[in-house]
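SUBJECT: A protein chain and its fold
Encoding: whole-number codes for local backbone shapes
RECORD BEGINS BELOW THIS LINE
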Amino acid sequence: MTQTDPNNQNKIIKIAYAEDHTAVRKSIIAYLHELGGVKVIIEAENGKVLIEKLEQSAKLPDVCIIDINMPVMNGFETLAAIRERWKNCKVLILSTYSDEMYVLRMVTAGANGYLDKACNPEEIRRAVMSIHENGNYYTGVYLEKTLERLQDNKMLRPSNFTETEVIFLKYCCSELTYSQIAQQMNCTTKSVEGYRDSLFRKLQVNSRVSLALFAARIGLVFL
């Protein structure tokens, strides 16, 4: 369990929230305020409005929560704009898209956390608290175990991996499919799947998102 700084126990975490469905946005804001410890100070119906309000704000929020599927400026574009203007701003993705490639794309683009919109509001609050205090929050046992193993330097020595596994790890952080990675590596898709499975065994994980996090941790890429 994460130790909480006694001096921050009464601190209200300020949030900016972009979500195009008004009813969803208002409901989640109401739940969060009822749970306490957090306060939404900026709300927007799309990414463009969020960026404009952030630019006009005298003080940035502690955490931004953004949806992916929004008109005018979607979540991917919004995250890119935030990272370009405010590199240290913390971002939680709250979306109905739970496919691994969506998670991978957001994580590699610099998101601090990713949640399915169908989750309990208490988990949203928990994610916000974790991102504010620890810098990240990812659901799923495989990602939790990955983050734990990121602290194990013995597991992260480049010498533990073959040259082809290291090359494959770099490609894991891209949006290429496994067959496209095989083309880039000039090998078969079956070979690529073999590199993947070997890394899964060595790192004791079972997702491409986890491999991308490892690649960032050992300095192969910068997320």
Q: What stands out?
A: Residues 13 and 129 are 8 Å apart (CA to CA). The radius of gyration is 19 Å. Strands lie at 13-18, 38-44, 63-66, 90-95, 113-116, 137-138.
